[in-house]
Amino acid sequence: MEFSLALSTWAGLLTLVVLEVVLGIDNLIFVAILSEKLPPNQRDKARLIGLGLALVMRLALLSLISWVATLNSPIINNQFFVLSVRDIILLCGGCFLLFKTTIELHERLENNYHENAENKNYAGFWAVVIQIVILDAVFSLDAIITAVGMVNELLIMMLAVIIATILMSFASKKLTNFVNLHQTVVVLCLSFLLMIGFSLVTEALKFCIPKGYLYAAIGFSILIEIFNQIASHNFMKNQSRRPMRQRAAEAILRLMIKEKNNNQTTKNATQNNKKEINSAESEKEKETFKEEEKYMINSVLTLAGRSIRSIMTPRSNISWVNTEKNIDEIRIQLLDTPHSLFPVCKGELDEIIGIVRAKELLIAIEKKIDVYTFASKIPPIIIPDTLDPIDLLGVLRRAQGSFVIVSNEFGVVQGLITPLDVLEAIAGEFPDADETPDIIQENNSWLVKGETDLHSLQQLLNTKKLIQENNYASLGGLLIAQKGQLPIPGEVIYIDPFHFHIVKATEYRIDLVRIIKNQDEC
């Protein structure tokens, strides 16, 4: 009754069962590999028979080692230490555990895992079973020595081994998958082995450490690992609720940022040696992304998170044909404007009749065809300003080289989008012949148009502090929102770490801004 009621006995049994299961992970991995060589209908049978026979062998080894461990008569006795056969076994076993655990930890930390070689030809049933038994015997040595080091009663050791083998038999597949997904558990248990091995060595040398200390340390570590696994599970659960596209984009962007930081570190570390700089930079030149490639990758990955308004050509920049003008004015407009496509409207931009090509409309005018009648044959494609940019690509394909009109919920035209606008959103600006670039860099500052797209500007300035809301898509919209009203020329608006100097503005909009980065941040 004292055996069954002793709290330390139950604690030792529970701890030993857990360790026996964990130490059997290598066994399970090899059992899984070997069983895969059999036909599917024989795999479970071979796994159970192999582990059952291995249990018998393990109990035999355990009985033998336990008997030897009872030999306490000193065989080495001098002024430094006294060693019995049991002490020598414990000392050798402890050193073996320390050595094996160190090797295993090194392999785990260096990512040198067991590799699975595929075998398409099925092996013989009993050949696989025999291999399972032999491999289990080989990998059971550390488990047997651990059992001797943890508790002193043979019955406790055997009971722990039997329970652990039964658990592994029923949960071999799940345990193997769990370990493959949670390598921290393996590292934690290998750390336990280091403690047990050290305990065996100190016990053999008569520097005994109370086993209660080991149980407390192991129990506390297991509790922390349980919390870690719960936190990881909750994190992955929350991550799975986010769109896959957003998670993939963030992962790739983090890799690019890490690569950029590594490149900068390498460059700073080799500044004192010009030859090393040249060779390192030439190697990086081959391996890493170019700046334009990073810009385009970033733009593609963030395209889905942008608004249609940040891509479109705004209403104020649209050149349109008014059917209420006379033919000569329309002809001059078509010849003087470099655009090839025009929306044709009646009186105002919101009354769109159709979309025409300048060349075709000029030919129609020469043939005395009515402009209104000609334009009405090609109706416009109108999309809402709330459309997902990814869906926009399909709409543009249906437009067959034309453009689409962006309208709000009240039917007021907000702008238009051409395939070139999408390309500029991805690769950067391509100014027309009659346009100046939206962003001009001058020494340590940038001269930027107020209508400049915030996404492009944010990438150029290498910051994430500009786009905080979806209520604005341009630099002018950002500064107006920041100020609370339309700023006047000469005003300075500070958004850490940039100073925005208003260079030119009217009563209705911001035309030109000079951006200067705070020197403390450079």
Automatic annotation (TrEMBL):
UniProt biased composition (Basic and acidic residues): 273-286
Keywords annotated in UniProt: CBS domain, Cell membrane, Membrane, Repeat, Transmembrane, Transmembrane helix
Domain of life: Bacteria
Biased composition (Low complexity): 263-272
Chain spans, region Disordered: 263-286
Cell location: Cell membrane
Assigned GO CC terms: plasma membrane
Sequence intervals crossing the membrane: 12-34, 46-68, 80-103, 124-148, 154-172, 184-201, 213-236
Main location: membrane
Entry-linked SMART domains: CorC_HlyC (SM01091)
Pfam families registered for this protein in UniProt: CorC_HlyC, TerC
GO MF annotation, one: flavin adenine dinucleotide binding
CDD domains named among the record's database cross-references: CBS_pair_CorC_HlyC_assoc
Membrane topology: Multi-pass membrane protein
InterPro entries in UniProt: CBS_dom, CBS_dom_sf, FAD-bd_PCMH-like_sf, FAD-bd_PCMH_sub2, Integral_membrane_TerC, Ion_transp-like_CBS, Transptr-assoc_dom
KW Plastid (keyword) present: no
CBS domain location: 312-371, 375-435
Keyword Transmembrane helix: yes
PANTHER family: HEMOLYSIN-RELATED, UPF0053 INNER MEMBRANE PROTEIN YOAE
Family: Belongs to the UPF0053 family.
Protein name in UniProt: Putative inner membrane protein
